[in-house]
Backbone:
């Protein structure tokens, strides 16, 4: 109940049965385009007979890469050089568009250091795909929100506002 108005709010997460695994051991995609550790989360609001739904998905960056555990706190990501990334990448987004429609990709990885190549490759691949149903936004979460400056998330929210309203 908010301001005396009662409604039902449901939150449902569905984890994919493809490419499930623990952090660092399972990364990227397979040849079918299944992203590692993919989860679909749906919010459903029911108010006075009306329903609204919003679906958000998350998963590993959808190209071929790995991050092998070692004695370091955060192992360096390795992007595969011996495969065609675009085939699996295209399959991943074709499936996403069929299931969910227009896509807004929000990439929160560091845009410097060891994660920089992941962000650069992801951005390049989205641009190469040239699909009007897919929009890409990179937001360096660690840089922008360091020292618990959560108010800086408003920068990201402003970047996403128009498409989210749509």
Residues:
């Amino acid at each position: 109940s908010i301001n005396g108005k009662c409604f039902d709010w449901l939150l449902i997460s569905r984890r994919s049965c493809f490419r499930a695994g623990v952090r660092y051991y399972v990364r990227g995609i397979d040849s079918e385009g299944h992203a590692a550790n993919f989860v679909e989360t749906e919010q459903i609001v029911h108010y006075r007979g009306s329903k609204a739904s919003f679906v958000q998905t998350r998963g590993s960056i959808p190209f071929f890469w790995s991050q092998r555990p070692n004695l370091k706190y955060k192992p360096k990501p390795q992007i595969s050089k011996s495969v065609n990334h675009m085939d699996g990448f295209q399959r991943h987004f074709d499936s996403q568009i069929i299931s969910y429609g227009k896509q807004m990709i929000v990439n929160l990885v560091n845009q410097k250091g060891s994660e920089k190549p992941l962000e650069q490759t992801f951005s390049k691949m989205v641009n190469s795909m040239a699909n009007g149903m897919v929009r890409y936004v990179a937001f360096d979460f660690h840089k922008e929100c360091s020292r618990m400056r959560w108010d800086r998330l408003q920068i990201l929210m402003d970047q996403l506002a128009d498409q989210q309203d749509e």
Remarks:
- The beta strands are 8-15, 39-47, 50-58, 65-66, 78-79, 103-107, 134-138.
- The two ends are 27 Å apart (CA to CA).
- The mean pLDDT is 92.
- Residues 8-165 form one domain.
